Protein: Citrate synthase
Organism: Winogradskyella aurantia
Amino acid sequence: MSDKATLEVNGEKYEFPVIRGTENEVAIDIKTLRSSTGGIITIDPGYKNTGSCESAITFLDGEKGILRYRGYSIEELAEKADFLEVAFLLIFGELPNKEQLEKFHTDIKSHSVVDDDVKKILDAFPKSAHPMGVLSSLTSALTAFNPSSVDVNSEEDMYNSIVRILGKFPVLVAWTMRKKHGLPLEYGDDNLGYVENVLKMMFKNPNREYEQNPILVDALDKLLILHADHEQNCSTSTVRITGSSHAGLFVSLASGISALWGPLHGGANQAVLEMLEAIKEDGGDTKKYMSKAKDKDDPFRLMGFGHRVYKNFDPRAKIIKKAADEVLGNLGVEDPILDIAKGLEKEALEDPYFVDRKLYPNVDFYSGIIYRAMGIPVEMFTVMFALGRLPGWIAQWREMRLRKEPIGRPRQLYIGETYRAFKTLDKR
Ligand code: ACO
């Protein structure tokens, strides 16, 4: 294949380099498009064809259903690694050895206290506030309590900001849930593993000791790993673009949390459960909802189905479906909505509408069923996604800063009014 692409506009020919990634993906490098053509740009709403960066963190092949972090398959990582190892791998590029992992965890634990004044901010939110809005606000507010996290002029500064947020974020996650449920706000326990600590902070009853349930620890570990990164998705691109203005890490993450909130992205896990509940309440008639999903005059979409990049099975969905069976079985939970979900999946996979459009279950189709079995309230599902995605966002932000990427600033094609003279109020 030629290593050049030729573009012809109004009889003029322009050449652009063709570059390849390590997995042989091909891209036309149009960095000089405007300067060489006298201002021509490309239009690509939703960035369906646009690579915003070169990245060495996550590889995914949506046609083949492959997902790898730093070269390691998601299947192996979900099976053999724990969340903190995966966080280290994503952020620093290699699996940690024992000493590196211990140091990483110790450094994170040294930042596991959130300033007590943050509780006052939390207190000002109504109990009805959605936890994602609260989490985004508190993550942003952390900057005020840790101003040194903004100016990162060295890798050491970056490291300090990274371990700080990895230490404090689970506290915020737990507090958003406890506030909603009227429970006292607790700090963690440095003797526990990262995931065990999260569970204790979320679920500890003030009147009794918290007993760890290894089934819950395993399930959460796996779910967090599966959500830990997914290359340039909506929230990650948001983190990178916010950070590209050299705004601090914490506010860049806060903007990512807001982007994740939407039901077309991370908010889908909550939307899936609400949809399955609604189908159950409506008598379990999955066919009715399949018809609604296919009706172009009906805004209803089958939540948890379809993906911008996967046009084959989302490999995470396969692992999560299996885990849902195991976790519910191990916990002795029988949940009728698991059967409704499986029924919907079966019907969709046999239906030409879904087959033709290559719509398969995505990561969120079964995750909510596991979260619910674990006792996590539905409005917290997207918060749990954010907890899992945290190392991915951090890794992408760090990569963007280390590569000294320019500020993100897309162009547009203006389609509004041309110049018109101002009319005073009496003439309008
Ligand atoms: N139910 C019914 N039809 C769907 C669905 C769905 N869930 N998803 C896509 N389609 C249809 C569209 O109507 C469109 O049909 P058309 O070609 O006849 O117009 C076609 O499939 C292509 O859909 P697009 O919206 O163009 O695909 P896009 O890549 O822009 O969107 C998205 C992907 C947003 C994930 C979409 O599939 C969707 O809304 N899914 C439901 C929400 C969801 O589960 N989101 C979570 C994604 S995973 C994540 O972010 C963690």
